[in-house]
Design goal:
The protein has 296 residues and is of the alpha/beta class. The chain contains 11 helices and 7 strands. The protein has a single domain, classed as Spore Coat Polysaccharide Biosynthesis Protein SpsA, Chain A, CATH 3.90.550. Helix content is 36%, strand content 17%. It has a 7-stranded mixed beta sheet with strand order 3-2-1-4-6-5-7. β2, α2 and β3 form a beta-alpha-beta unit. It is globular, with a radius of gyration of 19 Å. The mean pLDDT is 93.
Length: 296
């Protein structure tokens, strides 16, 4: 078997808000056009998990309307109601609060566990959020801003083969994650400090992009599984995948490479009460990570 280089794993599940799964509402167009932009990374293959209800529509969008080769982007049905950790999740999930949540815990945990369905024929595996390419994270100078609203606000030049090459290079043989500064620009709490070897919540790990070699991804899946089960049972509550990832980062720092940023905002956004020019002088925007991954 010839070993291929890189595969990205992602998913699209729309209209989960108000259900027992929880999730963002009416994001289907966002996810589709964003993933279409990310597919400009032509030196990698992609697999996208979705629901039985959505798969035919996704096939029409990607294969029919936009001529994406099925060998480039494989669309696969996966029932997240019966996901890898469903027994644990169902035991501790608060159904009523979940219906009003914009996050789906099943998807969050499956970001790691979908890797277990792979045939291990690639050297590198990365998870990437399908919605990562859009104007809320990327300034106008890297967006097409032409054509329809959908293409203009999601089509970015930052996703390309050079970005992939530098991502692999920056991985440095470790498991790579993205980390947000979490003190000046507080974003999230963390798990109970007792789960840290040395408690430090100054970095919040982001679940939008992570991975490495298949060996390191497999190792991190095993660590993530252990932490999810142990922490959930001990604290008797479910944490977001990013909270679990944040404690893993601190406890396994020697095995993890981190790409840092300080703020989600960029120069084309206007946030009430915030002096954007001053803010961006003091803080590194998320898109700067993608910009650095494009450096020749």
């Amino acid at each position: 078997m010839i070993m291929k280089k890189t595969k990205f794993i992602t998913c699209i599940y729309d209209n989960l808000f108000g259900t027992e799964l929880g999730g963002r509402i009416n994001r289907g167009g966002h996810y589709r056009f964003s993933l279409l932009s990310i597919l400009k990374i032509t030196d990698a293959d992609f697999v996208c998990y979705t629901s039985e209800k959505e798969i035919e529509s996704l096939k029409e969008f990607f294969y029919g309307e936009h001529n994406v080769n099925p060998s480039k982007l494989e669309l696969k049905v996966y029932d997240i109601k019966n996901c890898y950790t469903s027994e644990l999740i169902n035991k501790y999930k608060d159904l009523e609060s979940t219906k009003h949540s914009d996050r789906c815990i099943e998807i969050q945990y499956m970001k790691f566990f979908w890797f277990l369905l792979e045939d291990m024929s690639y050297e590198n595996y990365y998870w990437i959020d399908a919605g990562l390419s859009y104007c809320g994270l990327i300034p106008n100078k890297y967006l097409s801003m032409e054509g329809s609203h959908n293409r203009g606000y999601y089509e970015s030049t930052l996703f390309n083969n050079n970005m992939l090459k530098n991502l692999i290079k920056k991985t440095k043989g470790k498991f790579i994650v993205i980390g947000k500064e979490n003190q000046r620009n507080y974003w999230s709490g963390t798990v109970n400090p007792k789960h840290y070897i040395n408690h430090d919540a100054s970095k919040h790990i982001i679940g939008g992009l992570f991975g490495g070699t298949k060996e390191n991804f497999e190792k991190m899946v095993n660590i993530f599984r252990e932490y999810v089960y142990n922490i959930t049972k001990e604290d008797e509550k479910l944490y977001h995948e990013e909270n679990i990832m944040s404690v893993i980062y601190r406890n396994f720092q020697n095995e993890i490479e981190i790409l840092d940023f300080d703020t989600w905002w960029h120069e084309n956004e206007r946030i009430s009460g915030l002096d954007m020019e001053s803010h961006l002088k003091e803080n590194k925007s998320f898109y700067k990570i993608l910009e650095e991954l494009n450096e020749l």
